Amino acid sequence: MSVNKNVIEVQGLRKEFKSYSSRSGLSGAFRDLFTRNYKVLAAVDDISLTIKQGEMVGYIGENGAGKSTTIKMLTGILTPTSGSIVVNGMDPHKQREQFVRTIGVVFGQRSQLWWDIAVQESFRLLKKVYRVSDEDYKNHMGHVIETLEIGPLLDKPVRKLSLGQRMRCELAAALIHNPPLLFLDEPTIGLDVLVKLKIRKFLKEINEQYKTTIMLTTHDLTDIEALCERVVLLDEGKIVYDGKLNQLQANAVEGKQVEFQFLTEVYVTDLPDTRKVLWEQKDATTWVANVNGDDRVVSDLISLVVQKNPIKNVRINEISTEEIIRKIYEEGMALS
């Protein structure tokens, strides 16, 4: 597989569901027996997307935006209403048996491990399902087990594991056949910070070592910031942004704040008066400038302030990704 090959190619993808409503009263209930009222809703509405080998892409949006529906179509669980999907050179729905051997899937809310048997027995069964040779299993899974620190858990039944332990085992199970493409749907949901850090570190490692392509859907935007350079933002079944995470942050420049800590007490009259800056006083020696402009405006402001006043410290507070995405949804912020 060449490095720049498209692993996922989606054109005009659409998934419709029927939403049924009941008529009121006894006569309505009787009529419902023969004909039902329904509306057609598009959970995914004309999405086009390409993802190259080795990319780590964050697929984000509010509940009901269409994230899980997309993942289910990309993994062959759901059939699209219209549009085309090619993943790893195959149609996920039509070439199901061959296709599933080329992907790994971790759904935070569902398990692929057998509840009552030891973790390593689940691994052995999956090894047979995916037809992985003893040598490949030993070489690859030795590293996975060591890195995820699940060696001591292998003899335990899944029901005896904590959520964090189970999710690390789920991730290992998804990688038994060393797939070139990994789908992660809320993989760190409900986990403590240390476990999250371990999982993020591991995902970065397999991405670097094997060029594993990773598509990640999550509500935890710190996962996205730690792992993904590219984000695809979904709203009401449509893609509203597809590009670099840092560009998304740059588009929200009005959220930049510069905090100035002065050596002596400073009054608002000592500070530059410009239409692009709104000053806010924190205490006698600390002022915050809310800047509406690009990096050059911020740079010009800092040099103006520093020329006129003795400075103890200057800090630029970037708006968080979470804040940016909240603004996009609340204000319908234009994204170019």
Automatic annotation (TrEMBL):
List the Gene3D superfamilies hit by this protein, alphabetically: P-loop containing nucleotide triphosphate hydrolases
Q: Which domain of life is it from?
A: Bacteria
What InterPro entries does the record tag this protein with?
AAA+_ATPase, ABC_transporter-like_ATP-bd, ABC_transporter_ATP-binding, P-loop_NTPase
Q: Does the keyword Transport apply?
A: yes
Molecular function terms in GO for this entry? ATP binding; ATP hydrolysis activity
Tell me one Pfam family matched here.
ABC_tran
Q: Show where the ABC transporter domain sits.
A: 28-261
Q: Does the keyword Transport apply?
A: yes
Q: Which UniProt keywords apply?
A: ATP-binding, Nucleotide-binding, Transport
Q: Which PANTHER family match?
A: ABC TRANSPORTER ATP-BINDING PROTEIN (PTHR42711), ABC-TRANSPORT PROTEIN, ATP-BINDING COMPONENT (PTHR42711:SF1)
Q: What is this protein called?
A: ABC transporter
Give the species this sequence originates from.
Halalkalibacter akibai (strain ATCC 43226 / DSM 21942 / CIP 109018 / JCM 9157 / 1139) (Bacillus akibai)
Q: What is the lineage of its organism?
A: Bacteria, Bacillati, Bacillota, Bacilli, Bacillales
